[in-house]
Design a protein that fits this description.
mainly alpha; 2 helices; elongated
Length: 72
């Protein structure tokens, strides 16, 4: 049986990777649209947004497991 932290790490890695790949794809597609340019900084902002979103989602889930049901 896989330890819980290992499952969490693998799920987090997969979600972070997929979100980052999606952001990179959007930046790549901007190169074919006239008047749009791709930027490394935009890709970094996409990655940061995915990381913050995953962190907030994890925090919400962690808090929800520790509060009585009447609070959410």
């Amino acid at each position: 049986m896989t330890p819980p932290y290992s499952r969490f790490a693998s799920k987090l890695t997969i979600r972070l990777g997929l979100g980052s790949a999606y952001g990179a794809l959007l930046e790549l597609l901007q190169t074919v649209v006239p008047a749009r340019t791709a930027s490394f900084y935009d890709a970094a902002a996409n990655f940061s947004g995915v990381a913050v979103g995953l962190g907030l989602g994890f925090l919400k889930g962690w808090i929800a497991t520790r509060l009585p049901k009447r609070y959410y």
